[in-house]
Amino acid sequence: MLGQELVQEFSGNSYEVSMWDKEEIDITKKDLVFEKIKSARPEIIINAAAYNAVDKIEEMEKDFADLINGYAVGNLSEAAEIIGAIFVHYSTDYVFDGKEIDGYKEDAMPCPQSVYADSKLLGEQQIKNKKYYLIRTSRLFGKQAQSVGAKKSFVDVMLKCAEEKDCLELVDEELSSPTYVRDLARRTREIIEWKKPFGIYHATNEGSCTWYGWAKKIFELSGKNIKLVPVGADRFPRSAKRPKHSVLLNTKLPPLRKWEEALEDYLKTK
Which amino acids are annotated catalytic? Predict the structure, then answer.
C-alpha cells in the first residue's frame, strides 16, 4: 500500500525508480541483498516491506515477523552503508506501551507490548548506518496493494461492511492517528529533499481518533447509513495487546494535514 504510493511520488518528481517486490528480492537473505544493491548502486534505499498480521504474529509467527520486520532491516541498512546510500525505513506507534495520554515524541523510550511490536523495535535497532531516516507512522490507509495477500485498510473494510450490515460495534478505545499513504509518501520525499538531519521522525496526519471515531467519520463523509455502537476493547478479545494511547507527536517537521481532510480526499477516489 505504501510502496506503490512511494513509486508514484518519486517517479512523478524526476527520480529514477527501481521497484523490487518480494518476487525480485528476498530481503531476509543478506548475500542476495548485498549482491543486488551493489549492482544497482542506488542513492536512496526505501524499505516499505513489513509484516503486520498482529494477532497471527502473537500466536505463531514470531520468527517470521523477526525476519521481515527485524533482521531484514539490518541487511538493507548494511547494504546502504556499503554503497553510501541514504536508507529510509518505517516503524510504528506500536513500539510504545500506550500509557502516555499526551502522546510520544521522537526521543521517547520504546516499550513494546506485543510480539509484532517487538519485531518492529528489533528493526529499529538493526539500523546501524549513519545516513538513515527512521519514520514512525500509524494506521495507514489508501489504495489496496496489488501484492498477493495484501490487506485492505480499515477504511475499505468499513466501506465493505456498510454494504453488508446495518449495525456495527466498534472499539471506542486505542487512540491513534490515521495516516494517508499518499501524504506519507510525499513527506518521505520532502524529508530527503529538505536534507533534514538523519535520525528518527514521526509522520502521521494531524489529529487522532479511536476506531469508532474513525468509522463514524468514514460513514459520515461517504454518506453511508449504518448504526454504530461504541464498545470497549474487551468486547473483541485479541491475542496481541494494543497500546491505548499511541499518538505520535511530530516535533521536527511541519504538520501534515488533518486526518479528516486526508480521508475525504481518499474517499473521492473510491
Answer: 116
Question: Residue 200's closest CA among 140, 100, 68, 110?
Answer: 110
pLDDT in tens, 156-172: 999 999 999 999 999 99
Comparing C-alpha atoms, which of 226, 211, 228, 218 is closest to residue 270?
Answer: 218
Which segments within the chain are labelled E, that is strand? 44-47, 86-92, 132-137, 140-141, 167-171, 179-180, 199-202, 227-231
Question: What beta strand segments (E) does 49-152 contain?
Answer: 86-92, 132-137, 140-141
Count of CB atoms situated within 10 Å of the CB of 219: 19
Torsion of Cα atoms, 202 then 208 then 211 then 215, to 10°: -120
Cα Rg for the chain, rounded, in angstroms? 18
Alpha carbon 150 to its chain's center? 14
Q: From the CB of residue 131, how many other CB atoms can be counted at a distance below 10 Å?
A: 15
Q: What's the predicted TM-score (pTM) here? A: 0.97
